[in-house]
Automatic annotation (TrEMBL):
InterPro entries: NAD(P)-bd_dom_sf. It comes from Kribbella rubisoli. It comes from the Bacteria. This is 2'-hydroxyisoflavone reductase. The lineage of its organism: Bacteria, Bacillati, Actinomycetota, Actinomycetes, Propionibacteriales.
Amino acid sequence: MKLLVLGGTKNLGRHVVEAALASGHDVTLFNRDQTNPDLFPGVRRLVGERSAPDVLATGEWDGVIDMSGFLVRDVSLSASLLRDRCGFYTYMSSIAVYASKITPGMTEYAELLPWPDGAPEDHFTMDLYGPSKVRCESLLTATFGDRAAAVRSGFVVGPYNPDFGNWGWALAHDLPMECAARPDQPIQYIDARDLAAFLLHLTVEGLCGPYNAVGPTHTMTDLANAWRSAVPKPPPVDWHPAEDRFHLPHNGTNDGTFQLTNTRALTAGLHLRPDADSARDYIAWVQNGNVPPEPPH
């Protein structure tokens, strides 16, 4: 099918394009052509800004995968242009959309964050990250109806993506793994390749609605042990490092965010590889000379 990817040359978006090309889809990229411009040399590119997406009015696509929609105004502009130019629209959202941070077992239909009175739709701050994702999801549903999906994820791990608390780098260099989170902290994540495959699957099959695209809930201790099992002589875990790379409160006020129910995504076709496999591949990627990028936020 003809696919348009908004973004597509860094982190998760790179995996999405690789998966689409491997499946034989005809891919067009829309981005600023500034990040990794030499990637995918045979792929058609539309160059522009999300704030001025007029070039999107020059084509038609069976599906759109939006990897770069942060500002509400920008997503609204592209949605209005693509409403009658695409068959299906899949939006990369976030687990930050939920109003509660402490409730375990939330499904996709749990209460979402409200939009703050007077908040700007054309300016990004971290305080508006969750509400902006909610508002973008809402406007896309209003625009496309059952031709839209919203994929909510949190920590994304894998080649090209930020290191998971420095664990990949540490294991690749026989250094202690750092974890300032408490040992019984609940945590969920997903391998970037599994998430990319799911985004593509929803778009191709036209499966609408919101999805919690997350792995199972572990404790930090159990997950750390799974990663340590990927190397022959695992180093210890430093539970009191000088730098806190996870920034998770110790008092449980964010525990519910990482105990989401992923049943709807699994039923729709989300496949999750074992944690040790993700760790092994990431360690190998680092050992091959790659340097993990900084976290986006």
